[in-house]
Amino acid sequence: MMFTARINVMPLRELLDPQGKAVAGALERLGIGQVREVRIGKHMILKIEASGPQEARQIAEVACTRLLANPVMEYFEIALD
Amino acid sequence: MMFTARINVMPLRELLDPQGKAVAGALERLGIGQVREVRIGKHMILKIEASGPQEARQIAEVACTRLLANPVMEYFEIALD
Prior knowledge:
The structure is a homodimer. The first copy, chain A, is built from two helices and three strands. The first copy, chain A, is of the alpha+beta class. The mean pLDDT of chain A is 97. In chain A, strands 2-1-3 form a three-stranded antiparallel β-sheet. The interface between A and B is medium-sized, with 33 and 33 residues.
């Protein structure tokens, strides 16, 4: 069966996010100052061939751990459709 | 009130996603060939000051339209917590 995993890889909450800070500043200069804070990471959509949802989630976790996320600076979250 | 908007900005479905293709190839070389397709975009978390959820969503939409997404190559989706 084919599953779709939606993965977010985000900078750890304890770390500064300079890209997010830059975007927040740009939004303020555009007059959209109601946006108080921005954090920016990656969103990845994976199509995974697996026998069931549990296996699909496991494959997504292995992909995150081995390649997609850097645990020193990032955390990840997985949602399975 | 403070709202949290979670925004995905993704490459349009009709377009090639070379970064996703590269990651899919790397996963296969790592022995995670069950991942058949990868598409990669951005995930952004915005803290928005607004009087209600409708206004917060509107602000998020303006931010996407004016800065965060490039409609020629990308689409966006907004989820409000």
